[in-house]
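Internal ticket - ligand job 541, adenosine-5'-triphosphate:
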Amino acid sequence: MTDAMEYKLQASSLNLYYGRFHALKNINIGIRPRSITAIIGPSGCGKSTLLRCFNRLNDIIKSARVTGRILLDGADIFNSGIGLTQLRRRVGMVFQRPNPFPLSIFDNLAYGPRVHGMRDREELEMIVENSLRATMLWDDLKDRLNAPALSLSPEQQQRLCISRLVAVEPEVLLMDEPCSALDPFATAHIEDLMRKLAEQYTIVIVTHNMQQAARVSTETAFMLLGELVEFGDTTQIFQNPRQKKTEEYVSGRYG
Amino acid sequence: MKQDKLIKAILMAVALSAIGGLGLITLFIFKEGLPIILQIGVADFFCSTDWSPGEQRFGILSMIVGSVAVTLGAMAIGVVFSLGLAIVLTQFCPPKVAGVLKPLIELLAGIPSVVYGFIGMVTIIPLIREYVGGPGFSVLAASIVLGIMVLPTVTSISIDALNAVPRSFWEGSVALGATRWQTTHMLLLKAARSGILAAIILGMGRAIGETMAVIMVTGNSLEIPRAITDPVRTLTSNIALEMNYATGQHRKALFATGVTLFIIIMALNTLAMAVSRRRVAGGGNR
Ligand SMILES: Nc1ncnc2c1ncn2[C@@H]1O[C@H](COP(=O)(O)OP(=O)(O)OP(=O)(O)O)[C@@H](O)[C@H]1O
Ligand SMILES: [Mg+2]
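stdout (structure tokens):
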């Protein structure tokens, strides 16, 4: 039991098949609360697939089939009482390409709370302000909450998407290459934001950028061809990997 | 190279003659219709309900009202069903089923309008006479028949508009915990708004221009309707009913009716184009 509580999210013997294709092979991983865990690995190794297991976003893919368990605070997300809606409120996701909705800034932020039944205008306004403050957008956007969200810069759009999650008070933030569509300055800003958010949220980030993983995460998982090759402290993974394949990857031999 | 040029020249000639033909038709209608409007007086022509060709009185107000009433009724019915169908087919049914049903619905557009009119005459009109009242030939009957007739167009274009919404929006919404229905009405319908609007306007153009089916179910009376169970005459029916015996001023007044229709339809098409162009401009940032 202590073991279960030590982790916010814990996957055990997790397998995922896309039809015949075995995309995740017997994954065992524990994500610590209020920390940043990075998932790295070459393209197509199953990073996104693993991330999308944590909020059951793979459910929308018809061919996907999952075996094994994932525990959120010790409760199995596949067959305990946690409903899909509730799970996705608690485990939010930021996508690779910023995907603000074609609505106003306000409506983007109010979207999640409205989905979960919030109707009170004043309360919505407060949530919008707080979630914009959480990503340090409030001062820039407070005077144009009715502007279309698609008119923002890419960095602001990605921040807005993070705010949109914060608005539903999640516990875990899953980020799938959140900076790959951004320039280096915006990337640095978002990384700062992630460090700040990690004081309150559990963050899992998928990245192609090894420097980024080294900079922001406390623990790192290295995946290859659907397998979790190595998982441990970020410094250890990068400076003193136990597996030969990990060493080859972090030293750049896979490209 | 030389062949290319030749083919290009031929295609150009074909295109130009098609456009030229349209231009000539437009010119002809206006040449025949416009002078008489001025002669009768703009106010008398558009604002009088007295259409008595025998006494040289040509007021088309009751027909304008007829066309508008029938079209609005058709849209009220057609849009509800079309949008419902489009939503079900794009969001709530297996892609394979949708793949079969969509072409079938589009096939409905190919049925000749006289068939729709006939079906309306033998089924809808008796039902209205019996259960709603009035003579049966009515605004209501025309609205139902036209509502069914615009269904294929409006449904098909709405489906395309809904399918054109990027999947990333949909995923973002689902990842926030939204159900399919919440995603549909809180996000997709708004994201596809301009496409759906364009579909509705095109459907409206079809409804207002329809003639045969309307003649068969409206009763063609020359009064302004006071209830949806009253008979009416539309602009299109007026032309079709009287053109083959009209001469002189009467004939010209029918052309002027055509000019009126032409202007209404042009306005609707321009609106549709403006709306769908705004969609392209607004969709840049994806
Ligand atoms: N919907 C799907 N149906 C079938 N196969 C899929 C599907 N999605 C992903 N795959 C396959 O599963 C494997 C893992 O994909 P995934 O997207 O998780 O990789 P990734 O590590 O995130 O790659 P990248 O770094 O390019 O984003 C790939 O081989 C991919 O082709
Ligand atoms: Mg990926």
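Auto-summary: Chain A has one domain: 4-250. The first strand of chain A starts at residue 9 and ends at 18.
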